[in-house]
Amino acid sequence: MSRRRQFSKPGSPLTPSVFYILLSLSIRDRHGYDILKHVEASSEGRIRLGPGTLYTTLKNLLDAALVEEVDGPAHDDARRRYYRITARGRAELTSELARMEQAIVVARGRRVGARS
Q1: Cα dihedral sign for 5, 7, 70, 73?
Q2: C-alpha to C-alpha distance for 27 and 112, rounded to whole angstroms
Q3: Is the CB of residue 89 less than 8 Å from the CB of residue 18?
Q4: What percent of the chain has pLDDT over 90?
């Protein structure tokens, strides 16, 4: 599936990068470097985004109206771009969390990962 079409079908699974970026922005508005650090920390180092990946993904999220650019705090560096999750982005994140929870229920029901 092309990256541009990834968001054309609501409820489709999100990539790990998109999931963690939306999760980060669901907590508060953030600038790029703050997103990078939060994603790495919240994924316990499993997801490490480079600047190119982050800003390409953010552009795709902006194009899909899942995030929007907002003004940062007045005391902050004016060169920083801040991002906020939109209602549509929050709905996609909620849908992804529900999909993950359902997968866990199925896996536990089948005792996947259970120790013998």
Answers
A1: negative
A2: 32
A3: no
A4: 70
Task: Return the bridge partners of 84, or none.
Answer: 68
> If we measure between CA atoms, which residue out of 7, 53, 58, 50 comes closest to residue 30?
58
Return d(Cα 43, Cα 38) in angstroms, integer.
Answer: 8
Instruction: Name the DSSP letter for residue 13.
Output: P
**pTM recorded for the entire structure:** 0.85
Give the type of residue at 34. D
What is the dihedral sign for C-alpha 74, 66, 41, 98?
Answer: positive
Query: Could you tell me the two tokens for 113?
Result: 């990962």
Question: Computed from CA positions of residues 53, 54, 59, 64, in that sequence, does the dihedral angle turn out positive or negative?
Answer: positive
8 A C-beta contact, residue 24 and residue 30:
yes
* Helix residue spans in the chain (DSSP H): 16-27, 32-42, 51-63, 87-109
Domains of the chain listed by start with CATH number: 14-109 (1.10.10.10)
What are the tens digits of pLDDT across the range 67-115? 999 988 777 777 889 999 999 999 999 999 999 999 999 988 887 766 6
